[in-house]
Write a structure and sequence with these properties.
With 338 residues, the protein is an alpha/beta fold. Helices cover 39% and strands 19% of the residues. The strands form two sheets. It has a six-stranded mixed sheet with strand order 2-1-3-4-6-5, sandwiched between helices. Strands 8-7-9-10-11-12 form a six-stranded mixed sheet, sandwiched between helices. Residues 1-7 have low confidence and may be disordered.
């Protein structure tokens, strides 16, 4: 049974991979974002930009604008530039199979962020590797925290996007983990597109509040957009941030989420990933691909952020010296962002 929050993660866990190839010669890199209005994706893009500058590679960032068609068009534009590598930012590689076959034919390595159900290489979908937290860890930290906070009796609703393999995997594991608690229940799993989450969640929350009443104690959301909509709905029915249902985001962790946690504005916690670090890792993985080396086996762990430890931060920036570590691996020197 899940009864306690997992132990705090040591800073050394956020150092990045232990070793790797030195920097390959400059080549243009294309970052294709699912939707740059998504705070998590925008934060990863900034990390990629920092790392590309540090390693000495030119980078272009393209916006898929939240639609499969827009992502396909952006990916075609990226391929037409004959780049040295492509990063998929926040959308499934499986949905762009033709473009990734073309990339493989052209010898263009492709890495992804949340572009497959699990971290690591994905030959089936054409990814040299996928950078993300371990879904099992994300689910375990989230479920353990909610069960502990509720003293082992909780009704939960989960918002997810079934079109995103990573989010679907995490939400499925959340259902299983919460199910191990005898007096806990998953009342509903709501499948809603992330691109319209902040709008559609308002109406969905009104229905859930009416349907489940006091049984609904926590809302777990796979993107901050769902939290935006849920907070609007709760304010609309006169709920304060100090009364249930409490909102918890899973994975990511952008500035707006940290602000809500800090002020107690409906969001109680976030189980976050080190997005900036993952941006640096994406460039490092492309460097490994370009050097003809295997992908790293590094997977950054998630971290629980609550009001007691959010401080003045606007994102999760772990100690551990990952930037210096990547610079050392690449044989580069230069200023490191604190």
């Amino acid at each position: 049974m899940l009864t306690a929050v997992p132990a705090a993660t040591p800073p050394t866990a956020y150092r990045g991979p232990a070793r790797g190839p030195s920097a390959r010669p400059p080549a243009p890199i294309e970052f294709v974002a699912a939707d740059l209005t998504d705070g998590d994706i925008a934060t990863v893009a900034r990390g990629v930009q920092q790392a590309a500058t540090a390693i000495g590679w030119p980078l272009r960032i393209l916006d898929g604008q939240g639609t499969t068609e827009g992502q396909a068009q952006a990916l075609q534009s990226a391929l037409s530039a004959k780049p040295g590598g492509i990063v998929l930012g926040g959308f499934d590689a499986a949905g762009q199979a033709a473009a990734l076959r073309a990339a493989r034919t052209q010898g263009v390595p492709v890495v992804g962020w949340h572009a497959a159900a699990r971290p690591g290489p994905d030959q089936k979908d054409g990814l040299f590797t996928n950078v993300a937290a371990d879904p099992a860890q994300l689910a375990r930290v989230t479920a353990g925290s909610v069960v502990a906070d509720s003293q082992g009796s909780v009704g939960v609703v989960i918002f997810t996007d079934a079109e995103n393999a990573f989010d679907a995997e995490v939400s499925s594991m959340l259902v299983s983990d919460i199910g191990t608690c005898r007096h806990c229940s998953v009342l509903s799993v709501v499948d809603s597109p992330i691109a319209t989450a902040s709008v559609l969640t308002v109406g969905a929350m009104d229905l859930l509040l009416h349907r489940f009443g006091a049984r609904l104690r926590y809302v777990l959301a796979m993107d901050g957009g769902y939290i935006d909509g849920a907070a609007i709905a709760l304010a609309g029915v006169g709920r304060s941030g100090e009364e249930p249902p409490f909102l918890v985001s899973v994975s990511g962790g952008d500035e707006s989420e940290f602000a809500r946690i800090r002020t107690g504005a409906y969001q109680k916690a976030a189980v976050v990933e080190p997005l900036n670090l993952q941006g640096w890792q994406l460039i490092d993985e492309l460097n490994r691909a370009r050097a003809g080396k295997p992908a790293s086996d590094y997977v950054a762990p998630p971290f629980l952020v609550t009001q007691s430890d959010v401080g003045a931060s606007t994102s999760f920036e772990p100690a551990g010296g990952y930037q210096k570590n990547f610079l050392h691996i690449w044989g580069r020197s230069g200023p490191v962002r604190p």
